[in-house]
Amino acid sequence: MRTIETIKELQQWVDERRAAGESIGLVPTMGFLHEGHMKLVERAKEENDTVLMSIFVNPAQFGPNEDFERYPRDMERDKTMAEEAGTDLIFAPSVGEIYPRESSITISPGRMAEELCGKSRPGHFDGVLKVVTKLFHLSGADRAYFGQKDAQQLAIIESWVEDFNFPLKIRRVGTVREKDGLAKSSRNVYLSDQERVEAPHLKKALDIGQEMVADGIDPISAMTDYLIENCSGRIDYIQLLSYPDLTENVEGEAILALAVQFEKARLIDNLIFTIKGN
Amino acid sequence: MRTIETIKELQQWVDERRAAGESIGLVPTMGFLHEGHMKLVERAKEENDTVLMSIFVNPAQFGPNEDFERYPRDMERDKTMAEEAGTDLIFAPSVGEIYPRESSITISPGRMAEELCGKSRPGHFDGVLKVVTKLFHLSGADRAYFGQKDAQQLAIIESWVEDFNFPLKIRRVGTVREKDGLAKSSRNVYLSDQERVEAPHLKKALDIGQEMVADGIDPISAMTDYLIENCSGRIDYIQLLSYPDLTENVEGEAILALAVQFEKARLIDNLIFTIKGN
């Protein structure tokens, strides 16, 4: 496995793969890899001749008061894990390589960014679309892999790719969890010991909520009570929306999602399931 | 030469060209072709194995009070001209084929759309970026060809392609003019006989302005007087800006551009030249 840092080297690699008739699977990450990322690589490996992983903590998707500077980084550990999972190339560019100048042009996710995480993270999904657009173009990928844990990101990217005819497919990969149910996340390292004990209650609240939805009951107030009872963190949101279009017209595919702000970590989790019509 | 109307057929053609190792030159047009378009095809032909022309009057780039409905169309004549110039494939999709649903996501050109045509055509360049993004992705083009007459469009597209790493090159092709200097345009057919006699004064005003700029004199007021004297149309703007970044810091490459609204036709024209520093 090679690691490169420049667009020029990446272009050369992509040209070589293309010339050899190989398909490319892209796994975009911000590094500090965990088993969720490994599952993305495994899926990419199954469906493509070669797997490219990008590792780039994208400043454009962090707000001014967010954790860009202290976002966890460990390139050596990432390289070992990526290689073990079967990655062929890591692209780990500098910020200056990706953003050599400020562009006049912006991409706005619109309505889809007004729910869930978009509410408390203004501009976050603009930054996500900015970097994935560049990575999609640079990588020449046939398929790109994203985890369901970042479900709103996934829905917005799917819409972007479909509505603007990007020549690649987006693959949705299920959330990987700890044994106690906590969704794997690079930000879990920020949790205090006590918060780590509380954090599995996010998934439990979702399970409770899903059962209530199946019974035709609005789950938000019961889930709120449950989380207040069991978590010291502040609830940012609990929402039930259609998926992937993220409207309040929930019938068919739906997402039940929540975010809880602990002292140093803001955790998100969700379940996607089918609601049967009346 | 073939003409196709669906994305599916286009994708098949692109796959075949790619498999044969052929490079693709894209000439995006709104049809009602003239010699300016023919020059784009010729340039594309020189630099690529195969030439794809799109013909699509893009509703997204017309304002509610603009001329989308009455924009001139003549597909049979276009086919003959495109074939004579060496076009290999025409892609002429319906509006529903290009825009099957309203997207939540938009592309905003920002500061670069606040000058020149952007001022009197709000949303115009959003619509241009929307359609070229789709065409760039669908065509798999190595190079795309645009005329200098639409200089602001060209500058915005160049910036979009560079800042977001599209895997294609934009080629700028010089304006083609009538013998009397009038820039070729599909909209020239809207001119009355009297307006057609006046219209070459747009180019003359630009020539006068360029000489004044060379002499270090601000040309706007003299050009305004000249056009009021010689044209019945209403001046929309006359501006001198840096090019292609479109700022008021003019040294080096600059654009002197104007727009005049005649009764049924809004005509634009420009010169791009180098201003020597003091």
Can you offer a commentary on this structure?
- Chains A, B: This is Pantothenate synthetase.
- Chains A, B: It catalyses: (R)-pantoate + beta-alanine + ATP = (R)-pantothenate + AMP + diphosphate + H(+).
- The structure is a homodimer.
- Chain A is α/β, with parallel strands linked by helices.
- The first copy, chain A, has two domains: about 1-175, HUPs (Rossmann fold, 3-Layer(aba) Sandwich), CATH 3.40.50.620; about 185-275, Pantoate--beta-alanine Ligase, Chain: A,domain 2, CATH 3.30.1300.
- Chain A has helices at about 5-20, 35-45, 75-85, 95-100, 115-120, 125-140, 150-165, 195-200, 200-215, 220-230; strands at about 1-5, 25-30, 50-55, 90, 105-110, 145, 170-175, 235-240, 250-260, 265-275.
- The longest helix of chain A is centred in the middle third of the chain and has 16 residues, at about 125-140.
- Chain A starts with a strand and ends with a strand.
- The interface between A and B is medium-sized, with 27 and 27 residues.
